[in-house]
Amino acid sequence: MGMQTIAKVAESFEGTFECRHCDYEVGATVFAKSSGAARGVGEDAQRVAYENAETDANALAARTLQFVPCPKCGKLDPTGHSYRAQVTVGSLILGAIGAGGIYLYIGMRTRGRADESMATWGAIGFGIFLAALLYWRWGRPWRSSRKRTVFHT
Ligand SMILES: [Zn+2]
Fold first, then answer.
1. Is 56 found in the same domain as 17?
2. What is the 69 CA–ligand 1 centroid distance (Å)?
3. 132 shares a domain with 70
């Protein structure tokens, strides 16, 4: 793995909220926190880590606007629902793939001598952990989305 540099950002971003239901447009300030990583240490690594954190926070802020109700008609963006469904399905699929991978890895490392139920439960535990981690990370846009958004009405 080697040395890594981690940068954290907590910033507000200016964006435009466009309602898909009533066509209302309004400026919004969205607050987003993120962290980014870069290989190595030193000034360059610090700059790259910071840029990664900023790019991610920016994307998070833009996506957050899909999860706040329109200040005029109170409706939610329908694309928010499909993003949420994608995150749920994606986390479950990758969790299952991870569990399968760990199961095979345990079998290989122990040349099939591992206790079958230990290997199975270890793999299931890892799969659940991975799915929860991904769901947590990808689900940030809708978490406290209303608290992090201020409309310029
Ligand atoms: Zn609206």
1. yes
2. 8
3. no
